[in-house]
Amino acid sequence: MKNESLKLLLPLIAVGLCCGADWPQFRGPLTNNVATSDAPPSKVDQESIAWTADLEGRGASGPIIVGDKVFITSTTGFKQDQLHVMCFDVKTGKRLWERQFWATGRTQCHSKMCVATPTPASDGKRIFATFSSNDVVCLDLDGNLLWIRGLSHDFPNASNSLGMASSPVVVGETLIVPVENDDDSFTTGLDVKTGIARWKIKRPRVANWTSPAILKAAGDGETLVLLQSNDGVDAIYPETGETAWKYEEGAGRIPSTTVGDNVLYVPSKGLTALAPGSSSEPPKVLWSEQKLSPSTASPLFYQKRVYTVNRAGVLTCANPENGDVVWRLRLKGPFSATPIAAANHLYLVSEKGLLQVVQLGEEKGELTGEIDLKETILATPAIADNSLFLRSDKHLWKISSK
Amino acid sequence: MKRSRFLLCLMFLFSSLTTLQAYDVKQDIAQIKLVQKEGQGNLAASKAVKQLSQADASALIPILNSFEGANPLAVNWLRGAFETIAANAIKQNKLPVDQLEKFILDKSKNPRARRLAYETLIKVDPKAEDRLIPGMINDPSVTLRRDAVQRLIDEAKSLEKASKKDQAKKVYQQALSGATDDDQVKAIVKPLRTLGQKIDLQKHFGFLSDWMIVGPFDNSDKKGYDTVYAPEEKIDLTSKFEGKEGKVEWKSVNTEDDYGIFDIAKSISPYKGAVMYCTADFYSPEEQSLEIRLGTPNAWKIWVNGKLLFARNEYHRGMVLDQYSVPVTFKPGKNVILLKLCQNEQTESWAQRYQFQLRIARPSGTGVLSQKPESTTQLSP
Predict the structure, then answer these.
(1) A140-154 tens-digit pLDDT
(2) Which keywords has UniProt assigned to this entry (chain B) (predicted)?
(3) What chain A residue is nearest to B322 in terms of C-alpha separation?
(4) What is the pLDDT of residues A168-186, one digit of tens each?
(5) Contact, A83 vs A73, CB < 8 A?
(6) Looking at chain A from residue 161 to 190, which residues have their Cβ under 8 Å from any Cβ of chain B?
(7) Cα four-point dihedral sign A373, A375, A381, A385
């Protein structure tokens, strides 16, 4: 019965996963950092800035794009307890609307973090904005409030004194919100229409800043959501929160698992490539390679290659079949934002605000352009409208071809 | 005759519509205020907020009034509707600015509602800031007061720069009377002390500085967090206990730190895998709802008059002022606070802190002192 029901839901799930050229959540449509149909500029300079919009407060959350609108979050106030959701016009950068709410959970964060660190998500009709205070706000695309939840208000020990950073993902009718911390640690699946929990599962009691990844079904298989923690990776059914299979060899708590060609690249023992498991079979470890250990930025799989950026700012390109290094390129780091890819290029923005574009080749990567935005940027950029969208605390930029 | 009948019908219709809208607004607000934890009431509230958001500007003041008695979740729902209506009213140039200003100036109204009204008003009337904020220095709204304090800090700095030290001192003193946010307090206290003013920051913030403490008890493998040691069962300051390292007994300790930090590791011993119990009394002249505000990098439990208020099993993720705010209702007279503080066995340099700071404050952040006149805190005889 369950499988039958899920088969009926597959078209809906497909709709949830494929929002055309939108960038509807952290790390893009498939949470793999890749834009499939957009081509941002391959050579960039200061003249590539199509528009700049002013922002208030603080935010390390990335922009998301749905249709002709860009959505972004930030927080203001001495205690950073005023939560903002803002909407801008993709073409002009004009602010279309802004809504504010008050945090109902704790807002304490490490000085490098901030309350608006999780990137919002969208199912194409609704915007789901989450914050370190574990407040979850659901608005329609015009800024009308649909529902709001206060997960730390409901579960007061669900918090982290360094701040919560995990971004939610939406699959079909379920918004998956990780609230993983040292005390009351859980992940919950909220009904997108009401905000009421469809399920809530206990998670390892240790602070965790990773974000879920989507393992899209091959053929008629079921789409799974990957929850990474100190213990490893749990693949869960988004409708029920039930576990499909587990990888139990431990994993990092900052960079997140990414998926490419039905292989998981897990920040574990450096980097571990994993073939998905099933309810009867555990996942199979294909290889592990310490040299590919990612720092804060998540790994990237693109055009049959896997990429990581280390603490020193070195971009490493590796063979996804065995983890062997193919080429390395020293960039100007450090990086908090995850690299993103489109049209045979990687786009990396350093913490100091230097956007670097790398053209990919078989034997080497080549830096083809850079723009110094001169502001601290921790957020992963977005790609849509053949452009890049980046944000600092102060500004949102659109970078396009001239 | 026919014409007057027509007009009468029209008036009746208009009056009915107005009544209907007023009724709907009231009903929608009431529905939204039923929202509870874990999404209870969300379905009905979603419908209500959608309907309410379409109301005209006449719904703005009723929504602000409804903040009173609404839980923090409902307040956010109400704010969502308010902002949508206000945005439309601004576009149509129909924002009821006079009513908003009257609402802001009425200190009996909900502080958050007043702040929201203020932020909405200054979108169309930026000059309202100069008109309203200077009178907010002792306002019940934390954020309106903060803005008023900031104006005084800026004024005092200018006076200081102009070498008008006595005037600067007076303005800084006035600013301190309203300051509760630590960044502002620091910005005031440093120049005031330079100008020769003595300031008791412990008193300003309401820190408890005198404690009785006993321990260590065993917290190897973090097992002490859930172990009920004798002080949890009964506080008898004359008792002796079998501790982790032999017999232990209550001893009096205090701190002179500006921010009430009592450092167990430095002042007593850098215990590892340890539980310490700390107790202090707080005298209240009447029953009052306040907050215990605690900062600690260690795991903790807290009881007031024998009742467990909150517990947090987290180690070494930082310590800041007001890290945790725990609501508490104090009874008239003596109230006994018991804090259980657990240190783990981690060996990293950043995991060696064993300390806490605890103050009593109003929800607005203003420190509240124990009312026994001899000192800020008095221990039981």
Answers:
(1) 999 999 999 999 999
(2) Signal
(3) A108
(4) 999 999 999 999 999 999 9
(5) yes
(6) 161-162, 181-183, 190
(7) negative
